[in-house]
User: Fold these one by one.
Assistant:
Number 1:
Amino acid sequence: MTTIPHSWIESANDGVTHFPLQNLPYGVFSTTGQGPRAGVAIGDFILDLAVLDGAGLLPPAVRGVFGGATLNAFIALGKPAWTETRQHLTRLLSAGDDTLRGKSALHEQALVPMAWATLHLPVDIPGYTDFYSSREHATNVGRMFRDPDNALLPNWLEIPIGYNGRASSVVVSGTALHRPKGQIKPPDAPRPVFAACRKLDYELEMAFIVGKPSALGEAISTADAPAHIFGMVILNDWSARDIQQWEYVPLGPFNSKGFGTSISPWVVTMDALEPFRRDNPVQSPEPLPYLRQPHGNAYDIALEVALRPEGAEHATTVCRTNFKAMYWTVAQQLAHHTVSGCNVRVGDLMGSGTISGTAPDAFGSLLESTRNGAEPLALDGGARRGFLEDGDEVVMTGWCQGDGYRVGFGEVSGKILPAN
């Protein structure tokens, strides 16, 4: 029987917390009277890394990087510093280690109850790219809007399709967003109208954060991609479907996506995700040489979406799916993004695209699960939804299931406010 490493922080050992000793994700938080600084989630607490730094309890390589309002300075140190810091914090928090536990005053100062903290956007994001990497999602959309018998466009099985999004409107979980306005073309109208979105949707995605930059003209190979990826978050790429339908030809989404993208506040490192790396789905035709992978880059991450109308006592789970089925992997996405010579920077955010399974209850958007609003979902309490209404709250969560523990991402939530 395998012995599961435990922490001296009891809430990290219950088997269901998203933040056991095996995880230790990074985030940025503030408390009353103290501004934003970096922390690590452990059970029901946040380990204040600025306090540890001040006490001389961090490796010399990372001294002075945790007192700011973003993680960028730490991330920029590179993978050896990430791994060393993770190993160091694991030792400090492990059962039987009294380095921190044995210093009661420091212990109380360094461990902040999560309920006391406000969580912030964890990184400064120079650029945001959104991919379209779920074969099931692309097939569902293609069947609805193009040819049911030829749902995928000819390039989809050859290229990790993506577009450059708007980094300035990426927000942290809990940020409410106003229903967007834009041009909408009713089917029976000769010209578009300017109106508030009538088909507002969520998109369940994961995203990775670039941790090592590349130079202009430099391509990152699939073999080297892991050294360039710091960690992952859950991403909700809110989508105004009716605005999108009118604007996306010929250059793709614009106003329909740029009004807001939400991410979870805790960045789970690739080291924490390593035990859950799996073989990739079979790709046919075989990708071109620059997209071939020397090992598996799929990750077994269970994902759920819940929807709660305003005033409802409970949320209804409307989607359960898994990230491991994504056709194009994070390594292939980064390799394709840079193969032209496009440089990437520390903090760049790369969304996976909507994650869908094969069954209706595994579809990662209302567009799919309601067939563009034609078959509304029945929610607990009697409400029905074709698309999102004002006051609706969407909550996404995800985790990797280990043997007696979970490596989780917490959640990303957002509420829809009326058009401004």
Number 2:
Amino acid sequence: MKPFATIVLVMCIYLSGSDSAGLYEKSVIFPTETDNSFVRLNAPHFTSLTAFTVCFRAATEATRSYSLLSYATSASYNELLIWQENKTELWLYLGSYVDRFYVPEMNSLLRHICVSWESKGGEITVWVNGRRSVRKVGGKGRVVRGSGQFLLGQEQDSVGGSFDIKQSFVGEITDVNMWDRVLKPNEIELISQGCYSDGGNIIDWGSTTFTTGGNVIIKDNNYCTF
């Protein structure tokens, strides 16, 4: 008589409103525009930043404007905002300071985007798929204040809330990482190719806990081909 086989089922369930572990090799998908769907990234506490690099992969077929990454504090709801305007304009908000970069048109193919800034010289750079934009200068002497909230999927008009359905992101985002320094060009090139395993020390997509709200789908990202 053959012994009974033991079957073990493993299920991953992401509960809205509860903190979960990191999103290593996962994508978050926002299937429809809403005023309540978001992913909150629970970054460790920091007092202030005088430099940063934010990198992520994103794809969308939306033709209107939307938020790609929103960081709000009680002092400024646009403390740090990466905003897509008119499909070919990437805007960076640092409080009251705003700058615009013209980039290749956003579409349904995942692309890698990095934005870096440093306070001392005010240098701002955007990278798309490892290619550098023209460098601009702005926000000299500013700091990015701590004790705020990082959100994907929505633009915050109050800390953690006051969402506008027409500013929501519809599409897929993955590999969101943030460092408290300006990364070197060779580092960004490796990251864009998926060859750099270390996550950011502010946001680490592989380990930073997160909370979801509304209609958010989490799937394997499946973009690596090697």
Number 3:
Amino acid sequence: MKMRRHTQTSEDTGIDLTPMLDVVFIMLIFFIVTTTFVREAGINVNRPSAETAERQDQQTILVAISAEDEIYIDGRSVDIRGLRAEIERLKGQAPDATVVVQADQDAGAGVMVQVMDKARLAGARNVAVAAETPR
């Protein structure tokens, strides 16, 4: 019996990566489409704790009040005079959204009341104050 030796040409030695790249791109598109984006108020707030705190899973408009009584929406500072217009703009994008006020525990109560008042004047039916559950 004679043994034949099989010689490979340069055409046979390459690996076709096209199917693997197709799968990677399809997975990338899948993950981008199924990702939910979380909106943050833009600053870290030291929220007070409350025994009755509940998690909100519906659409929310987050308004943060820092310890220095500065107001933030989407990471940018907003003056109290422009807050109503900003909330009205966001309510136009999500009419049923709840306005959640994330006030620092050292923030003034007067500023928080003003923010809640501006939210109600902007047409928000549900206005809530964010708190953490005690550990």
